[in-house]
Amino acid sequence: MAGWLDALESLASSRAKAGLTRRLRPRPAGDPVVDLAGNDYLGLATHPAVIEASAQSLQAYGLGATGSRLVRGSSVAHAELESDLAAWLGAESALVFSSGYLANLAAVRSLTSVCDLIVSDAYNHASLIDGCKISGTRTVVAPHNSPAAVAALLDEHPGRALVVTESVFSVDGDLAPLAELHEVTSARGALLLIDDAHALGLLGPAGAGGVVAAGLAGRSDVVVTATLSKSLGGAGGVVAGPAAFTRHLIDTGRTFIYDTALPPAVAAGVHEALRLARAADDRRALLTSRAAQTVARLSAAGFEVSPPAAGVLSVLAPGPEAALGWADDCRDRGVAVGCFRPPSTPDGSSRLRLTLNAGVSDADFARALDVIVECSP
Ligand code: PMP
Q1: Can you tell me the distance from the alpha carbon of 1 to that of 207, in angstroms, rounded to the nearest whole number?
Q2: Which of 54, 58, 66, 76 is close enough to 269 for a disulfide, judged by CB 3.0 to 4.6 Å?
Q3: pTM for the full model?
Q4: 110 lines ligand 1 (CB under 6 A)
């Protein structure tokens, strides 16, 4: 097709005019910047025991899984991780994927083998939205965090429905009313899928996540997904729920069947991180006090911030370019913060996203808050 590069150029210039050009900023190893942008909430990505477990597995298994899970890619490291993930999450069974994105695609799509309607929260992550799309199943978007609206939609559309939500939402950091949502779904025979990505390791006893905290672990009408790349500091995704469902995923989950498995060395490192995360009450307490400190500091400086349910929160910026400039100025002063602009922000408003990290020292954290305030547009 002639002229396609010109067409891309013109799309890029429209994005640039709207302040929506995205950039990659490769970070060097040992980057001295204070990290309030990554998702290493518990500071386990660089924990010596995690690195050691992963290094030993790397020696034993080599670099990659060498195949998909059903061909050659399943290792004892995967099986042991799955068994401990299921125990932690209080689920009958757990299945590991090579990313949280792929876990969500498979979970949503495979659940529609038994559902003919999806009700999806307006602020759901792109991976859940894409799962709804590829399922080809009728999807209605529910207003954010409204069990009453979900109830009304389910009542309007009789049939077997799947309700999809996050537990802690990935940009604003607010918590879904999980117990109320489950009351609504269970009373109507609907299934509830909860993406626990930003709550795993942070909420609930032993950091078992938002679903355990809400008393919904092990329910036969609840399926949990999560990424292993945030509080567990590695990579990969998990779907946890009734064994009949993980069995169904093994047989029908396209992103499970046709994708090369997570490298065993990553599974082993994540498994060690899981052991540490269970015992990390001190790190969780630190994050709780840091969350309060952040809200107090930023509200005193005149910003609107709501108390985060776990380790992520956002601060509104006047527009996309202002958000980018703010993040750049922070970075120039040694503090990495997330900059979220449309289409990544649920309501189209640009913002800084701050993610707390228990590996950051108290002094660095206090300085980072000062820098954010001083650099504000
Ligand atoms: N769900 C949510 C809520 C997320 O924030 C993310 C990560 N951005 C994912 C799923 C995808 O996980 P992964 O990065 O492991 O693909």
Answers
A1: 53
A2: 54
A3: 0.97
A4: no
Contact 94, 246 (CB under 8 A): yes
Which ipTM was obtained for this model?
A: 0.99
Number of domains in the chain: 2
Q: In this structure, is residue 249 part of a structural domain?
A: yes
Same domain, 257 and 152: yes
Strand partners, 223: 193
Domain boundary among 278, 308, 326: 278
pLDDT digits (tens, 9 = 90+) for 105-128: 999 999 999 999 999 999 999 999
Q: Which of 255, 278, 301 is the last residue of a domain?
A: 278
Do 342 and 263 fall into the same domain? no
pLDDT tens, position by position, 201-213: 999 999 999 999 9
Q: What is the pLDDT of residues 249-303, one digit of tens each?
A: 999 999 999 999 999 999 999 999 999 999 999 999 999 999 999 999 999 999 9
Ligand 1 in reach of 259 Cβ (< 6 A): no
The tokens for 229 are 């790349």
How far is C-alpha 184 from the chain's CA centre?
A: 24
The response to whether residue 230 sits with its C-beta less than 6 Å from ligand 1 reads no
Question: For residue 227, how far is its CA from the centre of ligand 1 (angstroms)?
Answer: 6
Chain Cα centroid distance, residue 117: 24
DSSP string, 116-170: SEEEEETT--HHHHHHHHHHT--EEEEPTT-HHHHHHHHHHS-S-EEEEEESB-T
